[in-house]
From TrEMBL:
Residues 42-200 form the Band domain. GO terms for cellular component: membrane; mitochondrion. It comes from the Eukaryota. It is found in: Mitochondrion. This is Band 7 domain-containing protein. Belongs to the band 7/mec-2 family. Pfam families: Band_7, Band_7_C. One of its GO terms (biological process) is mitochondrion organization. InterPro entries: Band7/mec-2_domain (IPR050710), Band_7 (IPR001107), Band_7/SPFH_dom_sf (IPR036013), STML2-like_C (IPR032435), Stomatin_HflK_fam (IPR001972). PANTHER family: STOMATIN-LIKE PROTEIN 2, MITOCHONDRIAL (PTHR43327). Keywords: Mitochondrion.
Length: 342
């Protein structure tokens, strides 16, 4: 009969229920370090893919079991830690942070990590979840304290990069790599949120007024430009109209002058080439002279009576002398033209 002492029995029970810290998937999709039961030493074990088992022999680190078949020595070898090599997400709890312009923000985030060294992850830190979470919170508070509220809202991506870099520097001794850190929610105080809403409304009203004024300005410019073009076109039309009228009048005067010149030239040629033409012209001039004096009393109340009204022959002589003087003048001009031609 074997009798076990109470102390030995408690030790055996305790060693059979030794928990480990490993990465498991929670119901909400995030992975956390949780306590699970260690795999028992059944001599032959199959290690799952993307998992590392830490084996201790007689209480001292012996080796890391890779995925696949593994053979253990009974009673001597013990699987002490199980590390998942998959990428895991840790939820960073909500915390308060004060910006450089003294605004208190409530922020939370998600940290994505992966175990790159199973030995350091097992023996380098006691509680990786707690250590990473606390470091992420303090780093985030430190980074936010250097920025204003506007910079925090505008430069969230650079803030995530800075926090990831600081976490990687500290977690390399723990065998953990921080892949990225994402700020999930930023909750400013209610009064600050109301002020931001008013600022956005004021900015939108300002833009609306600017756009409205720009529209009125452009409309006035377009109307003025249209009137200017209309006046220019009207003046151009008037200009061309006047030019056309002037050209028409000039052409008419020229044609009339040419016709008159040709008529006079034909009359002069007829007088020179017709026998007795001079006497006929003299007679016609005298008749026109007498006829003109006859019309004076009909067209005006003022009557001009030439000297020697009773002497009709003197009238005739005056008319003939005028015609003879004109004829001599024309003969002199013709003679000068002939000499110039020679």
């Amino acid at each position: 009969m074997i009798v076990h002492s109470p102390i030995v029995t408690r030790r055996l029970a305790t060693s059979a229920r030794v928990p480990i810290r490993t990465l498991a998937t929670s119901s909400n999709g995030l992975n956390f370090f949780q306590k699970t039961q260690l795999p028992a030493n059944t001599i032959i074990r199959f290690v799952p893919q993307q998992t590392a088992w830490i084996v201790e022999r007689m209480g001292k680190f012996h080796r890391i079991l890779q995925p696949g078949l593994a053979i253990l020595l009974p009673f001597l070898d013990k699987i002490q830690y199980v590390q998942s090599l998959k990428e895991n997400a840790i939820e960073v709890p909500s915390q308060s942070a004060i910006t450089s312009d003294n605004v208190t923000l409530e922020m939370d985030g998600v940290l994505y990590i992966r175990v790159v060294d199973a030995y350091k992850a097992s023996y380098g830190v006691e509680n990786a979840e707690y250590a990473i979470s606390q470091l992420a919170q303090t780093t985030m508070r430190s980074e936010i304290g250097q920025l204003t509220l506007d910079h925090v809202l505008r430069e969230r991506q650079s803030l995530n990069v800075n926090i990831t870099a600081v976490l990687n520097d500290a977690a390399k001794d723990w065998g953990i790599q921080c892949l990225r850190y994402e700020i999930r929610d930023i909750h400013p105080p209610s009064n600050v949120l109301e002020a931001m809403h008013r600022q956005v409304s004021a900015e939108r009203s300002k833009r609306a007024e600017i756009l409205d004024s720009e529209g009125h300005r452009q409309s006035a410019i377009n109307i003025a430009e249209g009137e200017r073009q209309s006046q220019i076109l009207a003046s151009e039309a008037t200009k061309f109209k006047q030019i056309n009228l002037a050209e028409g009048e000039a052409r008419a005067i020229l044609l009339k002058a040419e016709a008159t010149s040709k008529g006079i030239e034909q009359i002069a040629n007829a007088i020179r080439n017709t026998p007795g033409g001079g006497d006929a012209v003299s007679l016609q001039v005298a008749e026109k002279y007498v006829d003109a004096f006859g019309k004076l009393a009909k067209e005006s109340n003022t009557i001009v009576i030439p000297a020697g009204l009773g002497d009709v022959s003197s009238w005739m002589a005056s008319g003939l002398s005028i015609y003879q003087n004109l004829q001599k003048s024309n003969a002199t001009k013709d003679q000068n033209k002939i000499e110039e031609t020679k």
